[in-house]
Amino acid sequence: MRIMAAGLNYRTAPVHIREKLALSEHDIADVLSGLRGSKSIMEGVILSTCNRTEVYAVAERKDQFMRELAYMMERKYNLSQEQFEASFYLHEDNAAVEHLFRVTSGLDSMVVGETQILGQVRDAFLYSQSLPATGAVFNRLFKQAVTLAKRLHTETRIGHKPVSVSYAAVELAARMMGSLAGRNIVLVGAGQMTELALKHMQARGADRISVVNRSYNRALEFADQFGITAEPWESLGTLLNTAELAMAATGAAEPVVTFDMLRGARQHRSAPLLLIDMGVPRDIDPLAEQLDGVTLYDIDRLGAIVNENAEARAKEALKLTPVIQKERHDFTRWMKELGVAPAIAALREKADAIRESACQDMLNKLPDLDERERKVIGKLTKSIVNQLLRDPILNIKELASERGGEVAIEAFTRIFGIEEQAQRLAEPEGTEASDAMDPRNAIA
């Protein structure tokens, strides 16, 4: 088994490429089903955010996995082979594990140390698990990644100051407009990103804010929660007539703030209008910046905004590399132990069967033993078996984690005559067999 992480992010692909792969849950289920149906992967998790789309896979063959992925990207999402090769990266095995740990901890984010990605990775894993598209390897790996990220954000200063994309958007607006107090501000969308932006704006004194959302009830709930004004979706064009700042993040497939809408608004105003598009796919027509008096920043331009906190976080991130590498080493060791788990479980199964058979023969020859005496004999024989197996199990675990571990495992199964049992346990069916495969459960 090999662990792979293939994808694109804000470094390797511009927004017009990334928005093609802003995958919904339905899309994710479809892609995972297609890849697993072609037998190119055994386990899979897809992470799709505004800044990255990544496919994590447990697979046997790298070349087959990448061919299937490229074919699917072209057929379903109109990503040409040339675009795929130019945008997609691939990390394998240890590098893939370390990449996931860095992504989940916010060390690979556009804004280093941001915490939103932690929840996005967790949600991506839980959704893939519910399909179900994960197994023993990813159930362990992603839980370890989430636990590590939580610990790093608690124990270090990597997330000491708020520097999310939403924060960067508000920081930009404040720098360009001065005080946000008394400014007419429109929020398009009532999701998590606009919520974060709103909190930062209110912290800077913004007090004249309206929100529009396709669901008016959601807009009302949002407005009531934060003490702002909710307006119907149909009033967006009118609101832009007087707005000085508009921020958008809706998740819509096409721009909701259109060029014609903005051109009409310019006819009713002379004051400048600052537009900040935090959405992928984009929520504001990129042609808007052709209009006089309109300044547009999309998520890529936001990524270029660097403030004082970014440098401090980058320095803190360097200190975390040894921690990430230790976690990767721990997982790699567990993976190698997972490979020996069927052999250990098979040895335990054979030893228990021999012990039980011998005990039964002895009890048949000593029918006058009372219940207490029978229990004493049972405990004694179990203790003997455990003590005999302790050193072989510890030694094979150690050998399995070293170079040539597969050869050591093969010799181990031949010495104890457990080849068939180990092969059977290596192909688990159902929860009971899966538990036997876990090295934590295979050792008494």
From TrEMBL:
It catalyses: (S)-4-amino-5-oxopentanoate + tRNA(Glu) + NADP(+) = L-glutamyl-tRNA(Glu) + NADPH + H(+). Residues 423-444 are annotated as: Disordered. GO terms for molecular function: glutamyl-tRNA reductase activity. The record marks H99 as: Important for activity. Residues 7-156 form the Glutamyl-tRNA reductase N-terminal domain. Residues 323-418 form the Tetrapyrrole biosynthesis glutamyl-tRNA reductase dimerisation domain. During catalysis, the active site Cys acts as a nucleophile attacking the alpha-carbonyl group of tRNA-bound glutamate with the formation of a thioester intermediate between enzyme and glutamate, and the concomitant release of tRNA(Glu). The thioester intermediate is finally reduced by direct hydride transfer from NADPH, to form the product GSA. This is Glutamyl-tRNA reductase. It comes from Paenibacillus aurantiacus.
